[in-house]
Design a protein that fits this description.
Elements lengths: L27 E2 L4 E2 L10 H8 L1 H4 L12 H11 L4
Antiparallel strand pairs: 1-2
Length: 85
């Protein structure tokens, strides 16, 4: 929440990372190099889930840090990102 902005969410007013307001509508993410499969939900969003689990393994040199998220947290984030239309 401190890194990314999401319009209409005052708690998400970050300025470091990309704006995630319409994340679910994007075809690609991570510098437009990774397919956005968030619409597949927690069980099918393999690319987004892998990114959230270990951004550096998916895109070496990425500015997003590894947040040490567990599987339940990743599933919850995928579900939330799918609502950002």
């Amino acid at each position: 929440m401190a890194c990314h902005a999401i319009n209409g969410n005052e708690a998400a007013a970050g300025r470091v990372g990309p704006d995630l307001t319409h994340f679910a509508e994007r075809a690609m993410f991570a510098g437009y190099i990774l397919p956005n499969d968030v619409e597949e939900g927690p069980d099918g969003a393999e690319t987004v889930s892998a990114w959230l689990a270990d951004p550096q393994a998916v895109k070496p040199g990425a500015q997003m840090p590894d947040l040490g998220l567990n599987d339940d947290q990743i599933d919850a984030l995928v579900a939330y990102l799918a609502t950002l239309k």
